[in-house]
From TrEMBL:
Its EC number is 1.1.1.49. One of its GO terms (molecular function) is NADP binding. Belongs to the glucose-6-phosphate dehydrogenase family. PROSITE patterns: G6P_DEHYDROGENASE. This is Glucose-6-phosphate 1-dehydrogenase.
């Protein structure tokens, strides 16, 4: 039963079945299955909930239960409880088959009908496609042909969840959207961007619109520029099959960072409702303009081998299954502008990379310098620009940087920071992003899910960069592991008289 003092996720899903395609993948094992258990453990899934795995493995229901239990015991955030497990496992089923196997989807239909009767799932079925985009069409076609996608002739609802990447460019994104929405209505399609499920991402809206001291300054009159960073201190690990040919720009900038840009720069929606929130994000993305000089205001990098944190690490081209002549970037940075009244003249700098100095995702809103008329004896090296830094991960919170007098007889100023951390201010831990997003799918609440218009607008922003890099043979520049990217990234800001923040 849900703890009445736990206000993190107060809505409880109704009777439903979640069908998970791609149950053998890392995402399912490390994130999705543990999140489902954690939701059950928090009392946020009903007793009449069912989980159906679909895959090629020759597994029985018990085999799949054993796999789920292993994933839960290794990766769940809440303590393992036998009573919760027994409640969850009673509704676990597995259907063996390929994505284009009509007979397997017939068995899936029979399984869901059995669960509707025995578990009381009431025909409420969500299909989670944790699979490569090239398999979407086969799965959607089979769902439609077996009457699993439509609820017109039966009771209950049908929803589909798709994971990024949403294509590899604008054209492919549109093709994927046509495939999915030819089977499911647009309001039944949930595109997962797990960053939007993070508590601190949602706190951007609270910080801006619930606090009068920030919003009046949140514009070109006071803001000098904005930096959005997603840095990882690890390499690609076992993701070579996915990462090669995709790169940092498509993997991170097109979705995560442009969504963070939209939330940072958007106007206040009429209310916290999916339609209004998405409309305001789309307006910002539509107003984004690219620099005239794409070469000077973009940077590509690829991590080299060397030492990081006292350990010797491989370069990208030395990673398993990566070609020795690979031109895939592991670091990308771009400059963007927003052509509207609020942000005209304020550059937004976005960067993402692997094997960087530390793991951090943050949004830094850097304000213009004060005139410094009263404190001429102090140089700008001692105190500089005020900044509000929203830390998305790993130490979630907000830092405000401002100038303060150094104790003593002289009027000496120095930059100091005032820090808010979620872990210090709230006893409740933040729910894991996938917990929030899976619950929202089952509840049918879409504010945190980007619609196809946002996806297409994001590709319209990134595609010209990708085309320029490809047409002009721009090769990624090597950078040392543990550094903050290639020299070209630093030159990008230096051209504007600025420098990257050191997180």
């Amino acid at each position: 039963m849900r703890d009445p003092q736990d206000r993190r996720l107060t809505r409880v899903a109704g009777p439903s079945a979640l069908v998970l395609f791609g149950v053998t993948g890392d995402l399912a094992r490390k994130k999705l299955l543990p999140a489902i258990y954690d939701l059950m453990n928090r009392g946020l899934l009903p007793p009449r909930f069912a989980l159906v795995g679909f895959g090629r493995r020759d597994w029985s229901d018990d085999d799949f239960r054993a796999q789920v239990r292993e994933a839960v015991e290794n990766h769940a955030r809440t303590p393992f409880r036998e009573d919760v497990w027994n409640q969850l496992t009673a509704g676990i089923r597995f259907v063996q088959g390929a994505f284009d196997d009509a007979e397997a989807f017939g068995r899936l239909k029979e399984t869901l009908e059995e669960l509707d009767k025995t578990r009381g799932t009431l025909g409420n079925h969500a299909f989670y496609l944790s699979i490569p985009p090239n398999a979407f069409e086969a799965v959607c076609t089979q769902l439609a042909e077996n009457g699993l996608a439509s609820s017109e002739q039966t009771e209950g609802w049908r929803r589909v969840v798709i994971e990024k990447p949403f294509g590899h460019d604008l054209e492919s994104a549109r093709e994927l959207n046509e495939i999915v929405e030819s089977v499911f209505p647009a309001d039944s399609v949930f595109r997962i961007d797990h960053y939007l499920g993070k508590e601190t991402v949602q706190n951007i809206l609270a910080l801006r619109f619930a606090n009068e001291m920030f919003e009046p300054l949140w514009n070109a009159n006071y803001v000098d520029h904005v930096q959005i960073t997603m840095a990882e201190d690890i390499g690609i690990g076992s993701r070579a099959g996915y990462y090669e040919g995709v790169g940092a720009a498509r993997d991170v900038i097109q979705n995560h960072l442009l969504q963070l840009l939209a939330l940072t720069a958007m106007e206040e929606p009429i209310r916290f409702d999916a339609e209004y929130l998405r409309d305001e994000k789309a307006k910002v993305l539509a107003a984004v303009t690219l620099p005239d000089d794409l070469e000077s205001y973009s940077s590509l990098g690829q991590y080299a081998g060397g030492f990081q944190g006292g350990e010797e690490v491989k370069g990208f081209k030395e990673e398993q299954d990566i070609p020795s002549d690979s031109r895939t970037e592991t670091f990308a940075a771009i400059k963007l502008d927003i052509n509207n009244r609020r942000w005209a003249g304020v550059p937004f700098y976005l960067r993402a990379g692997k094997r960087l100095g530390r793991r951090v995702t943050e949004i830094a809103v850097v304000f213009k310098r004060s005139p410094n008329l009263l404190f001429r004896e102090n140089s700008y090296e001692e105190f500089g620009q005020n900044a509000i830094v929203i830390r998305i991960q790993p130490d979630e919170g907000v830092t405000i940087r401002f100038a303060s007098k150094v104790p003593g007889t002289q009027m000496e100023l120095r930059d100091v920071s005032m820090d808010f951390g979620y872990g210090h201010s709230f006893t409740e831990s933040s729910p894991e992003a996938y917990e929030r997003l899976i619950l929202d799918v089952l509840l049918g609440e879409p504010p945190l899910f980007p619609r196809h218009e946002e996806v297409e607008l994001s590709w319209k922003i990134l595609d010209p960069f990708e085309k320029y890099w490809g047409d002009h043979g721009v090769a990624p520049e090597e950078y040392a592991p543990g550094s903050w990217g290639p020299e070209s990234a630093h030159r990008l800001l230096a051209r504007d008289g600025r420098a990257w923040r050191r997180p």
